[in-house]
Specification:
This protein has helices spanning 2-19, 21-47. With 48 residues, the protein is mainly alpha-helical.
């Protein structure tokens, strides 16, 4: 069930980004710094 949900999420995301590129770009610009910050914190936490 988890794999199906992941695949459906990816497909919906691709369709959304193709249909509404401006909205998808603004969402990406909003979320990317947060995602980078979280991954940096996780990376530093794993290393230490």
């Amino acid at each position: 069930m988890g794999k199906i949900s992941l695949i459906m999420g990816i497909v919906i995301g691709i369709v959304f980004s193709v249909a509404f590129p401006e909205v998808a770009q603004s969402i990406n610009d909003f979320l990317m710094p947060t995602i980078i910050s979280i991954t940096d914190q996780l990376f530093n936490w794993i290393i230490q």
